Amino acid sequence: MDILRKLAPVFLFASCVFLITDNNGVEGSHRIYSRLQNVPAGEVNQVHRTAYHFQPPKHWINGPMFFNGFYHLFYQYNPKGSVWGNIVWAHSVSKDLINWEALPNAIFPSKSFDINGTWSGSTTILPGNRPIILYTGLDNDKRQIQSYAVPVNISDPYLREWDKPDDNPLVVPSSDMNASQFRDPTTAWWHNGHWRMLVGGKRKKSGMAWLYRSIDFKHWIKAKHPLHSAPLTGMWECPDFFPVSLHGKNGLDTSRVGNDVKHVFKVSLDETRYEYYTVGQYEPETEVYEPDKTSPDGREGLRFDYGNFYASKTFFDSSKNRRILWGWANESDSADDDTAKGWAGIQAIPRTLWLDPSGKQVLQWPVEELETLRGQKVDLNDIKNMRQGKLVQVKGITAAQADVDVTFTLESLDKAEEFDPNWEKLDAESVCALKRSNVPGGVGPFGLATLASQNLEEFTPVFFRVFKTKENKHKVLMCSDAKSSTLRPFDIKQYRPSFAGYVDVDLAAEKKISLRSLIDHSVVESFAAGGKTCILSRVYPTLAIKDDAQLFVFNNGTEPVTVQTLAAWSMNAPKQMNQNLEF
Ligand SMILES: *[C@@H]1O[C@H](CO)[C@@H](O)[C@H](O)[C@H]1NC(C)=O
Ligand SMILES: *[C@@H]1O[C@H](CO)[C@@H](O)[C@H](O)[C@H]1NC(C)=O
Ligand SMILES: *[C@@H]1O[C@H](CO)[C@@H](O)[C@H](O)[C@H]1NC(C)=O
Ligand SMILES: *[C@@H]1O[C@H](CO)[C@@H](O)[C@H](O)[C@H]1NC(C)=O
Ligand SMILES: CC(=O)N[C@H]1CO[C@H](CO)[C@@H](O)[C@@H]1O
């Protein structure tokens, strides 16, 4: 047992759960499809099924989790249907973050303190290498309360079975709280004799990260002030709070404090269904977290991802000294489509996350293990001076299942279009919707046309467009546009946003910008400028499927662009992706 413990580094991960409380078909933010909640999958349709993104064997997933010499992913799952409902904590393990083995459900409603639901939470490793889960249970009255679970057999390397002791719950909502707005406990951190954890909440219209402290992990006392809150942001789901190093890419244990770290605070905003984070300073003695001036709270804030990405969680991977971020990407098709195809929801590729040298934002990059799936490679280097309207096909790889990394260079930004001052009021997504890849520009649009049919009847462009502001500054917009991703008529219920974010690069000085896209049948997951801006899109082509999908590089701006380097790989599927379904 001791030997096992020594050999087995522990990785913890947490998932976020959502809440259900409305009565007109939308609970919290999950639309409730009572008629579909218990409809099992028939023939599972594989056309848009992802190959190397984590997915449930079938039915519904929403959020990850953690653990031991093995990576453990606990995720919110409906064992009975492909829409939200009947939520349990499903459990998969992996040695490499690529291949996954499904285990029996770890936590499911069974006791008075969670009989009406087992929602999201986190894991913490206690001293002596003992993992513990904190989660939100819904009790008999459907109050949201925080409970814990521990492994039944700590010597079982898979930690298959979890026990929810009878001294639960640990924390119940206080009398001044709304018991339907109190959920998603974080990984706890230790400082100066006390454990701390956060629970997401809301008071009036303000989002709240309630702070609790404990000496023994059993008795928790609410601190006088929340660790953080922000007006008019609504319910805060899935808070995450962790240190990042001021220097280098290494991740830090969640309890690290000191002069050489900053802290990142993230919430999933129920009202927008997007996530926002701030970078700031945490003083454990006074229990104050202060975001830096450069990172505002709420809807104006920074985002880990400007696409389909929610309920994310980070964990510290002590075996490789890195912090890993893992988000959940929902489907963009309809509930009926999900029921027909028999599954819904995937996990984004796990991303290593660290502080940008500027200190103003984080950088994210797919974990290095993903590269083990790279197969056939194609290089297209030094495509000089691609003029407006130029389209170059990347041949020789499986374009529906690929990893592509391209660097563009530009001679000059003189032709950059003017940034209309009225757009200051718009978000990036609205600007992208006005300036799509088929709207010719000055510097850009240039980028990749992914999941494309041969004649571009369907394609999902991922591209840059450079603007010049009144102050003569450049603004670089990154778009991942789903509008033209499918020939299915627009009246079919499907979400086709022109996802976009700005990229904080000095293109006038650097004269180059990189783009990496992970393409996986119904996923286009992209990383601009080494991970400064990331966008995950879910799309459902009808022609650009399997071997008929194509990949192009394009320029639709008057300023010629050069492809300095382009490397593209066919991606293999992992050997094992939860096929061993035993529950
Ligand atoms: C605990 O797990 C270990 C390792 O798998 C196993 O050998 C042992 O029999 C288990 N103990 C119990 C009580 O199930
Ligand atoms: C408590 O929260 C629920 C869920 O957000 C909401 O529907 C309800 O109106 C709230 N109750 C009060 C008294 O504010
Ligand atoms: C999931 O998909 C729907 C559209 O189908 C979208 O409106 C919603 O905001 C998405 N995101 C989350 C986090 O639920
Ligand atoms: C480039 O612009 C032309 C003209 O609008 C359009 O037909 C074409 O589809 C655009 N290319 C891409 C990749 O969007
Ligand atoms: C409020 C509510 O829905 N309570 C339910 C909690 O679960 C018990 C046992 O399944 C039900 O009997 C309650 O109706």
From TrEMBL:
Occurrences of domain Glycosyl hydrolase family 32 C-terminal (ranges): 369-570
SMART domains, alphabetized: Glyco_32
Range of residues in the leader sequence: 1-28
GO function term, MF aspect, one: beta-fructofuranosidase activity
InterPro entries (UniProt xref): ConA-like_dom_sf, Fructan_Metab_Enzymes, Glyco_hydro_32, Glyco_hydro_32_C, Glyco_hydro_32_N, Glyco_hydro_beta-prop_sf
Matching Gene3D superfamilies: Exo-inulinase, domain 1, Glycosyl hydrolase domain, family 43
Compartments where located: Vacuole
Pfam families: Glyco_hydro_32C, Glyco_hydro_32N
Catalytic reaction(s) noted: Hydrolysis of terminal non-reducing beta-D-fructofuranoside residues in beta-D-fructofuranosides
Domain Glycosyl hydrolase family 32 N-terminal, first and last residues per copy: 53-366
GO cellular component, one term: vacuole
GO BP annotation list: carbohydrate metabolic process
UniProt KW keywords: Glycosidase, Hydrolase, Signal, Vacuole
Tagged with keyword Signal: yes
Family under the similarity heading: Belongs to the glycosyl hydrolase 32 family.
Name of the protein in its database record: Cell wall invertase
